[in-house]
UniProtKB/TrEMBL annotation, chains A, B:
Gene3D superfamilies to which the protein is assigned, alphabetical: Zn peptidases
Domain of life: Bacteria
Residue span(s) of domain Peptidase M28: 296-497
Name assigned to this protein: Carboxypeptidase Q
Classification of source organism: Bacteria, Pseudomonadati, Bacteroidota, Sphingobacteriia, Sphingobacteriales
InterPro entries according to UniProt: CPQ (IPR039866), Peptidase_M28 (IPR007484)
GO molecular function: carboxypeptidase activity; metal ion binding; metallodipeptidase activity
UniProt entry tagged with the keyword Translocase: no
Residues spanning the signal sequence: 1-21
Organism this protein belongs to: Mucilaginibacter limnophilus
GO CC terms of this entry: extracellular region; lysosome
Length: 520, 520
């Protein structure tokens, strides 16, 4: 597979053969990093404090604050400097669940697996009510419910069903998948989705969303007690989302419980068959408005080279999570690996030429707010491409946010000139399963904030494991999902990448800079 | 695959070629049965009433009583006669969950997925307590906890971990698996496990069980508030068991919550790291002692042949379930299929020569009590092999209790002479995937009660699907697990088997009769 890969790289990078051959690799330091990262790892202990001890880390919540404070303190203990919670601007309200109980009591007792949607209110004490089935294809279909829903629990008719699990939840990338990635062609930088309205599925989804929003507004006006909506997931796994805006000016919405498919469908079937269903619930949620700021954790290993110390290598991942579990794979894993990478570099006594800066973002789940605002505050505005001087001093940003899976390579994000560099840096980790370069972009996480202002931002390729099927955004994203060997491997490789980026003669080569939005 | 199968049958049955060739099959009736079973099915409606409408059907519970009453009424509506709840003897106390809430409140709030063990008491109102970690390898290790556990929540240290799901939950039998079953050699009738004490794993398990029982007795004496034990299962799926005897004379035990692996391990990790954990819980369970009898649902399609109507074909499955879900695959599926089979036979206007009797057993989950006592009451005592005349009049008993999977064939349970008969009866259903005969025994369910007194008792081979991995005995065994096409197929094949057994010139050939226990 390696030879194929090299051929791919050469094809992609054109006349890069010489560069490739010359890219220096510090094998003595890699030995030390491997020794520390694979044999003296603290990554599981770090992950434990970020998950089990801190709890759910929804943006603005006390859980996130606990994790941020612990991280600042721990990074300082490891010898990093300037460790702090750096405000990035106004986020909005914090929110957490303080009681979560719901059960059907008629036709018999059964406790539900159901999670309040983020930023929804509580029941204001225990409630008990029959459940009303709402059938509405248009907003006018709601007329028949007018005046009848005060204090009631409502549920929506659905055609959804659950499927048996004929496919495994967890997988590692097969060689064939990695080869396919390696053979990808360069893609255009993503622009805002102008063409989405041509996509019939997107149009249908937007229409359904608009109807649902209108229904929810109607239900709020009717003073319903509780809305049940069907969660994605099965077997007790519930994927969670937000149910309201976190803006401090946002209107109060009705309480909405994301209900496990099994519990939801049972209630719908009973109601459709004319059976009465009653529910009791006691939900308490709390909003936090004393501090509407968002914060990122930032800390540094200062550079020591007189000329190069003004330049920066950044690494990070988002620390915030959803609220129904402890966000182990999304993204305590990435945060713990990045913290472990800097710990390794401190432990091996590394004094970098360039400054190393770790950042643990917040509000990634609401739209990469932590990283985007950090970039805006420090490097420039991607809309206007008005850049600050610091934009020119960041060699690269490395991100990790695809779960607990070990590193299999790196997305070049279109930066073909970085290919030979990374190829040389990955080579010593072939035995750990990491040797794929793909020119392609990956999205959905914080490296995009850097890429948007022309700073090389990279996300590693990670084995998917159960990320899409069971863990990310679910009530099952707990410490138990973390795979120790994978996290150790990832931290070791990231440490080596950061080391080499800090010591490299030049900064990581950049691709063509983005244009101001609207000038394309 | 078929030709291989025939060869196997011939080998197994010796000089059975002639019998095989002559076994009559009524293709006209099979056409009618298929039409009714595959195109006019009511099996999902039946399953809905047994699961969603009746609720959990633990032995002795109101949920089981609801299902039994509904089944008696429905069988009568379909034109069966003598439908009744037939008492089989003393079972013990009924029990059901009436409130089920538990959450950690320190170090932060998180509601647990945890199920009371069957026949355990409640908390007698809401409780709140710190959690104490119990480390005990021997009973004397408990001394250090004496006098310290009053009202406390306790949890046990464990080395258990959870694993990622690299294998699919659901599978159908591959041809290779079916071929292997078809090639099995005859096995001896199972005797009580005399050799188990030679088995080191069994010895270790018994020792662990004895320690755990001693610990629980200690904890009860210490008046603990609540015991948390780690459930099998992951991703929100909890396998449930009983936590106390259902005997009306049984001593009260401490409340024990079978806690999802994720929630359990989080608490253990926190406590082991010296973090304080507090729990609030409100568990209400109710015992039912007004009627300690067990009941089976029994109903008949009376035979019409002057000589043969005294003879009986029986079919059945157990109707009772565990308590945390609605026992859809264990065993509403088998019950609904057997009910559907007799509905089909009534719907096609069949007037059987022999009497057809359906039985839906109870207390199967506690040791096949319903079927064993039925057999004892009607047919004889397997211990002494003192038989009643009716034992000689039952041609065969067909059972279904391996989940929602369609029928792939039948276990001959050592009755080689039945092989050619069933081979001929399966042949018209090859297109539906059912064409495997295996001489081998299968266990764990109610056909064993018949086999034990020498009545041919058979369980069909069924595709496993998610039975062992997700559904049986779990909080996820709900209607959603049922696969409509599989249940239709099974009912159609069972109806045909029952039809042919009712009309056959002779009764199903029997294997050698069992000897009285202890005379082997």
């Amino acid at each position: 597979m390696k030879s194929k890969l090299l051929i791919t790289c050469l094809l992609l990078t054109g006349a890069a053969t010489a560069t490739f051959a010359q890219e220096p690799v510090d094998t003595a330091m890699i030995r030390k990093i491997r020794q520390e990262g694979l044999n003296n790892s603290k990554v599981m202990e770090t992950a434990f404090y970020l998950t089990d001890v801190s709890g759910p880390r929804l943006a603005g919540s006390p859980g996130l604050k606990r994790a941020q404070n612990w991280a600042v303190s721990q990074l300082t203990k490891w010898g990093l400097v300037n460790a702090k919670n750096e405000p990035w601007g106004k986020f909005g309200k914090g929110w957490e669940v303080q009681k979560n109980y719901a059960a059907i009591t008629v036709p018999y007792y059964h406790a539900l697996i159901a999670i309040p949607k983020a930023w929804t209110p509580g029941t204001n004490g225990a409630i008990k009510s029959e459940v009303i089935l709402i059938k509405a294809d248009t907003i006018t279909d709601l007329d028949k419910y007018k005046g009848k829903l005060q204090g009631k629990v409502v549920i929506f008719d659905t055609k959804n069903t659950l499927k048996p699990g004929f496919e495994a939840d967890a997988e590692r990338y097969a060689d064939s998948s990695l080869n396919k990635m390696a053979a990808e062609k360069p893609q255009a930088r993503r622009t805002p989705n102008a063409n989405n309205m041509q996509n019939p599925r997107m149009v249908a989804a937007l229409k359904a969303r608009a109807l649902r929003n209108a229904i929810n507004a109607f239900l709020k006006d009717e003073n319903v007690g509780l809305i049940l909506s069907m969660a994605r997931g099965t077997d007790g796994t519930v994927f969670t989302t937000n149910g309201a805006s976190y803006a401090d000016t946002a209107k109060v919405v009705a309480l909405e419980l994301e209900t496990s498919g099994e519990d939801y469908l049972r209630i719908v079937r009973l109601l459709k068959a004319g059976q009465k269903v009653e529910i009791e619930a006691d939900i308490k949620t709390e909003f936090f408005t004393a501090d509407l700021q968002g914060y990122n954790v930032v800390a540094e290993i200062p550079g020591t080279d007189k000329k190069l110390k003004e330049q920066v290598v950044m690494l990070g991942g988002h620390l915030d999570s959803w609220h129904a579990a402890t966000g182990a794979t999304d993204n305590a894993a990435g945060s713990a690996v990045m913290m472990e990478a800097v710990r390794i570099l401190k432990a091996v006594g590394f004094k970098p030429k360039r400054t190393i800066r770790i950042a643990l973002w917040s509000s990634e789940e609401q739209g990469l707010h932590g990283s985007r605002n950090y970039v805006l505050n420090h490097f420039g505005d991607p809309k206007t491409m008005q850049l600050k001087p610091e934009q020119g001093k960041v060699s690269a940003y490395y991100n990790l946010d695809n779960g607990t899976g070990k590193i299999r390579g790196i997305y070049l994000q279109g930066d073909s000139a970085a290919g030979p560099v990374f190829s040389a840096w990955l080579a010593p980790f072939k035995d750990l399963g990491a040797n794929t370069l793909t020119i392609s972009n990956t999205g959905g996480t914080d490296h995009l904030a850097f890429d948007a202002v022309g700073i090389p931002g990279f996300q590693f390729i990670q084995d998917p494991l159960e990320y899409g099927t069971r863990t990310h955004h679910t009530n099952q994203d707990t410490y138990d999902r973390l795979i120790e060997d994978d996290l150790k491997q990832a931290a070791t490789i990231v440490a080596s990448f950061v080391y080499h980026t800090a010591q490299r003669k030049d900064m990581i080569p950049r691709k063509e800079q983005p244009k101001p939005q609207g000038t394309n």
